Amino acid sequence: MLILSQYSHLFISKEGRFLLYNSEINMFVELTKQQYYSILQFSKIGEESGLSHQEIEYLIDKRIIVEEGHKDDYYNKVKFITRLNCLSYDTLTLNIIPTTACNFSCSYCFEKNKSVRIMSDKIIEDLCTFVNKNARAHKINLIWYGGEPLLAANVIEKILHRMSSTIDKPIVHQSLITNGYCINEKICKLFKEYKLDDVQITLDGIRAQHNRERFTNNDHNTYDRIIRNIGIVLHELPLTHVHVRINVDENNKHDYHLVTKEIRSLYNTDRLTFYPGFLRIEDPVLGKMKSPSIVEQSKRKFYFDLECEGEFVNFFPIHRNKSCSAIKLNTFIIGPQGEFYKCWNDVGLEDRIIGYINSENISNQSLFLKYLMDGTMFDDPKCRECFFFPICGGGCPQYRLKNKFQDGHYNLCSTFRDGSIDMDYLNRCLEEHYKMVSSVSKLK
């Protein structure tokens, strides 16, 4: 029996356009008035009257109309593919923390008050041995993280030199997450030799706001130096893409476009992108976010305000990756003492260590298995029934574990919902996208 897919959504735009969006294949179709009401009637009573054979075939092909058991089949297919990806050994992804030291004192940092360590030569040797023993991996992804990783640039250099001489697996992707303060020509020379694909540099808003939050003991104007260093990367590393993360909360959300406007006026290149990093400030007692964190409803307004300021905003829903490093078997975060973690937020917490690089055993199997098995969306009945299941990544695995095992109340849903689905917001996003594109598929 054919039914309208639960992932199909009919709506009429403010301009009177008849549109249909399907979250499974993430596309929307322009309909005639007759087609719209024929599909609407079909969704209610299951009658195909008013639709031609060609139209029905098109709707079936696009999975807008499906067999009655399609939802369960699709759910199991996505679950299988995600599990297969998460349990794959083909790629070894290493998030390496060469040091936990940091030169900034950010008020919201989740790594504050953690011991300062730096990776030793012995741990570097153990790291290379670990990679060589991972025989089923054919390629390597490297992500440099901290602390501030560039405070241990000499350690990064040693690791890259050692890997290049002792490991036969190619490094297919290399990324750097940095506050940008320590970037210089010497750093760029290193990453010319060992190609850096991406660098993420973080700002905290306009100059005054940023300098209040992100400063060193000797420099309370880090903003200008970081802006200059963005230019150094763009000039010295022509194969590197720069992602500028601008931290956003309720206090500085109106400044975002001012920062992007300033930096774009200095550096006109398609190798430079911006995105808002919504700060997550937790209330550990209530088990949820607290002020000045931005809630989902405020995020929606934030994006529409950006568009009003002339920012390009892609309002079309995108498929979120369902494979955070925390739920991937062959992905590890390696601390400076050779300790293994599954989540960046766990770094420096002894009870969150899952093992050590010089040991073949997982020492904290309970936590390791919780991340792998309970950190996904697939055992959540709300996710199974959700219209946005195909395009949602399921939220943060760590917050999912906190909700499940620590009585947390963290919102795991996409911007399109906050408890209940906000179809008005979805309609508005789709309508904005419709205005931007020159053509939309039409039901023939």
TrEMBL record:
For whether the record's keyword set contains Metal-binding, the answer is yes
The record's section on PROSITE patterns has: RADICAL_SAM (PS51918)
CDD domains given in the database record: Radical_SAM
Q: What is this protein called?
A: Radical SAM domain protein
Which coenzymes or cofactors are required? [4Fe-4S] cluster
Q: Spell out the molecular function terms from Gene Ontology.
A: 4 iron, 4 sulfur cluster binding; catalytic activity; metal ion binding
- Note one Pfam family from the annotation: Radical_SAM
The Radical SAM core domain is annotated at: 88-317
Family matches, as Gene3D superfamilies: Aldolase class I
**Keyword 4Fe-4S among record annotations:** yes
Q: Which UniProt keywords apply?
A: 4Fe-4S, Iron, Iron-sulfur, Metal-binding, S-adenosyl-L-methionine
